């Protein structure tokens, strides 16, 4: 799909090769951490950015061609983690082609990351008005609604998204997270039901099993090294694993542990994954919550 600190520092025993991992000794019975070399910028993508930039200097391009090249360059900026440059290109593309559904989708994603929820809702609504079959707009609008504290509407969007592919563990997890905000017990019942339609051989099914209590965090991390088929896949799995472990920690009221897990998710540099995109937003929510608690202690409400 994509998209994932303990209370003590992580100590790396030795430099890691790409796709390799190390396991520090367990501390305070916490899961043994796996660390992979962060994903590196793909030189081919950098070359593509240069070529697209050159094409955009051609004077006789149509507005539609220029919009397409701006969108394509924005995609590559996004893959490189250059999100400000990507957002500039997406906005320029939309000015040239106001019915560009893919651009609206990215503008909504970026607005969600910036916690500009009204702008995000408008962008995703525009996507679905232009193309009601644009499935991922339901996921992305659902995420915006989830972080915008409108879980009832988020559940509707995540349910629609899940219907398109009921055997996708990530769709199951996001629906569960939204349902948990409304009724934790019923959400767990629904999660167990959705689990019956998932493939046991799919590594990401372990993320669902984590929330069901069928495996531990340590077992999830250990499984992330199994069956790797491509360079960088370990970093991708760890991005997801640490994000959802962080979400679990937050649900259990362990904000400090969650903060450290989100840092590990961000350290993978898997910029295009949903889990990497929203780890920083999660950290921002934790920090703002801690600040409000501190202010409340300093200035308690008048009786």
UniProtKB/TrEMBL annotation:
SMART domains cross-referenced by the UniProt entry: TPR (SM00028)
Record note on quaternary structure: Homodimer.
PROSITE patterns given in the database record: PROKAR_LIPOPROTEIN (PS51257), TPR (PS50005)
Keywords, alphabetical: Cell membrane, Lipoprotein, Membrane, Palmitate, Repeat, Signal, TPR repeat
Cellular component aspect of the GO annotation: plasma membrane
Free-text function comment from the UniProt entry: May be involved in cell division.
Organism: Ferrimonas marina
Residue spans of the TPR repeats: 101-134
Subcellular location: Cell membrane
Chief site of localization: membrane
Signal peptide as annotated in the record: 1-24
SUPFAM superfamilies: TPR-like
Protein name (record): Lipoprotein NlpI
